[in-house]
Amino acid sequence: MESIFNSLNTTTNRSTEIVNQIKSNLLDGTLKPGDKLPTEAELTEQFGVSRTPLREAIKVLESIGVITIKRGSGMFITNNLSHFSLNPLVFSLIMHSQNLDKLIEFRQHFEVMMIHVIKSNWSREKINRIEEVYNYQVKTLHPDLPPKRLAEIDLEFHYAVLEATENALIIEIGKTIYELYKPKMIQSKQSGSIDKTLKAHKMYLDTLREKDTPLEESEIEEMIRFNREWLIGE
Q1: Nearest residue to 211 (alpha-carbon basis) of 131, 115, 132, 113
Q2: Whole-angstrom distance, CA of residue 230 vs CA of residue 153
Q3: DSSP string, 4-59
Q4: How far is C-alpha 70 from the chain's CA centre?
Q5: Each residue of 103-117: pLDDT tens digit?
Q6: Residue 124 pLDDT exceeds 80
Q7: For a Cys-Cys bond, which of 6, 21, 42, 97 suits 180, CB 3.0-4.6 Å?
Q8: Same domain, 109 and 182
Q9: DSSP alpha helices (H): ranges in the chain?
């Protein structure tokens, strides 16, 4: 098969370079929605890499909806590529997401920014909506639920906070952060984390309820510590 990719000339960040090549081929029209990609073996030969960085790149592209894998048929460029999928800022976040510790830190400071935005345009209606989601979590989170469902219910709270910012840029970046988080959340979610999750969300909600009360630095540190504890076991 004729090669459509270039052999990599770097020994570091190979999965990132693979993603960037596929992205560039989409932007210049070399690849189009619906196109079938070469097989895994053909791609490793074209890029000059082992299967490990290739599979990491494919996982990233699949998670953001650029690639669809059809069992028995192969890998395809999805037919419904969106601006979100090719957004340079979104791609940049994805490329740096391998550093989980930095992602945790960035997420928490991003959420502090969201709190400030909501407080600057505060309304009882917004807080009521977030509170409704929190109350739903209190009733719904249960030790018998599978990790995937626990993660989904957890994220509903954060999506509600995102929407309360009423800022399209914040919402787009926030959704990307949570999508990057979700697979790790599913791996880490255990029934024992329910109480900690609800405690963190309650603290979050209490902070938002008070329009003129600033978020304490100790609270930010606690949020970061909690996320690091259950995501990477520190």
Answers
A1: 115
A2: 16
A3: -SPPP--SSSHHHHHHHHHHHHHHTTSS-TTPBPPPHHHHHHHHT--HHHHHHHHH
A4: 23
A5: 888 888 898 899 999
A6: yes
A7: 97
A8: yes
A9: 14-27, 40-47, 51-63, 83-86, 88-95, 100-120, 124-140, 147-165, 168-188, 194-209, 217-232
**Phi/psi at 30 (nearest 5 deg)?**
-60, -40
What is the Cα–Cα distance from 64 to 75, expressed in whole angstroms? 14
Domain around 130: 96-232
Mean pLDDT score of the chain: 83
Residue with tokens 């304490």, as numbered in its chain: 216
Residue 48 shares a structural domain with residue 73: yes
| pLDDT for the residue 200 | 84
- Together in a domain, 21 and 104: no
In this structure, are 125 and 59 located in the same domain?
A: no
Question: What pLDDT digit, counting tens, does each position of 48-90 carry?
Answer: 999 999 998 898 888 777 888 998 899 998 887 665 555 666 6
The strand pair at 67-70 and 74-77 is best described as antiparallel
Please state, for a pLDDT cut of 70, what percent of the chain lies above it: 83
The per-residue pLDDT for 186 is 79
Structural domain contains residue 88: no
Helix (H) or strand (E) holding 2: none
Please count the structural domains in the chain: 2
b/e map 145-178, b = 16+ CB within 10 Å = beeeebbebbbebbebbbbbbebeebbebbbbbb
Does a structural domain hold residue 1?
Answer: no
The whole-angstrom separation of Cα 64 and Cα 82 is: 10
